Amino acid sequence: MDQISSISGASAAPYLSARARARMWWLTIHRWLGLATLIPMAILGITGSLQVWPEETEALLNPERAVAASADPARLDETHVAAARAALAPHGPIQSLRIGGEGEPLVAIASVPADGPGRPERHTAWIDPENAQVIDTASSSTDSCASCMSCTVRS
Known about the structure:
Blueprint: H1 2-8, H2 18-52, H3 54-61, H4 78-88, E1 96-99, E2 106-112, E3 121-127, E4 134-139, H5 145-154
Antiparallel strand pairs: 1-2, 2-3, 3-4
Helix pairs in contact: 3-5
């Protein structure tokens, strides 16, 4: 009767060899380590996938920054720069202007030095090339992670 209960698994552990017990122990450790690393690896995979398409991710998360596909950056003039200056006036002078391709907005960036050690706070304004209207403004401390990500990828 004892042989039958050991075969069914009721008390199988005492009959395992030392090598088999060590293998079960390593299997248990391996499973728990795999489960513990699953969440960080999934986060890295998802955010890495978003970085492959920064423009599409930005358009998905911030659709209000889209401009007409026919918007021509060659038509930019002083009114566009004046609109950018007005939008970023409280945050200092414009330090960077990025003129995109056709169908992309003008992007103006100003930054304020940090109080003490740290990174300066960046302020960004998106200007419509068609009519020189401010589409959106954002700060590096309050903007979406995709915008920061796309700035990192492009620079």
